[in-house]
Design brief:
Elements: E1 3-8, H1 17-25, E2 52-60, E3 63-71, H2 80-86, E4 93-95, E5 102-104, H3 113-121, E6 129-130, E7 137-138, H4 144-148, H5 154-158, E8 164-168, H6 169-183, E9 191-193, E10 200-204, H7 224-236
Parallel strand pairs: 1-10
Antiparallel strand pairs: 1-8, 2-3, 4-5, 6-7, 9-10
Helix pairs in contact: 2-3
């Protein structure tokens, strides 16, 4: 049975323990960054930060409201990045059958920057990042090594508030629905973000745009019609012998 995260943003305190645990487990190097006047740091996801607790501040009426959003790859049930990548070079993006984890492989170093951008544009959550030094594509891999060893993902293991949850997909969907019903008693606009399409299910207590532009799926920079036309063109010319950089 595939696995899923359930991320309850109503319980997130932005301690960033999940962000740091992810970085520590994968032994990712430090980023050169700077303070931009927000709790959020670094400013965005990058090749050395697979997880980022986003921070948004809004004035609602006469009150300042804070919204925290632990951003990461959604491990889509049917990952569009895999479909796009297969038209560039098969095997760049794979999906583990047992867990549903979507993984960028070392083959990603073989594709050009333009092809990376093509793959990135297919993602409705703006997740893929690229190491400019090595060309490696990078993102959350569901801690596949830990999960295969019967361990929780590092971000879930370290979470002190119950924000991060992980388990069999059906169990996480049931937990998410139960929690949603409770939250809706005080926050009638609460919702689950694209639960049928992803294996990282977020509970949002308010309008999605107050959390993050991509807290719910967004259209590709190109329209779906343009994207599918591009995929068809690539498939039609896949055997034309064109060499990629």
């Amino acid at each position: 049975m595939s696995k899923s995260f359930f991320i309850d943003t109503t319980r997130c305190t932005a301690c960033r323990g999940c962000q740091l645990a992810c970085k520590e487990w994968f032994e990712l190097p430090a980023n050169k960054t700077k303070q931009l006047g927000t709790h959020q740091n670094p400013p965005d996801l990058n090749a050395y930060n697979y997880k980022l607790v986003r921070f948004s501040e809004h004035m609602i009426g006469d009150r300042v409201e804070w919204y925290f959003f632990p951003d990461q790859c959604r491990h889509c049930v049917y990952p569009p990045c895999q479909g796009a990548a297969d038209t560039v070079l098969e095997g760049v993006v794979i999906q583990d059958e047992a867990t549903g984890a979507v993984i960028f492989t070392e083959k990603s170093t073989q594709i050009s920057k333009d092809d990376f951008e093509y793959i990135r544009e297919s993602c409705p959550y703006d997740i893929p990042r690229r190491d400019e030094k090595t060309g490696r594509m990078a993102k959350c891999v569901m801690c596949i090594d830990r999960v295969q060893a019967g361990m929780l993902p590092a971000c879930v293991k370290v979470c002190p508030t119950g924000t991060m949850n992980f388990g069999d997909r059906e169990d996480m969907l049931a937990l998410a629905q139960k929690r949603l019903e409770k939250v809706q008693k005080t926050h009638p606009n609460a919702m689950l973000a694209n639960p049928d399409d992803v294996n990282v299910i977020y509970l949002l207590a308010d309008a999605p745009e107050r959390y993050h532009t991509h807290s719910v799926a967004q259209a590709s920079p190109r329209s779906r019609k343009q994207l599918f036309a591009s995929v068809r063109n690539r498939l039609a010319t896949a055997g034309d012998g064109v060499e990629r950089s």
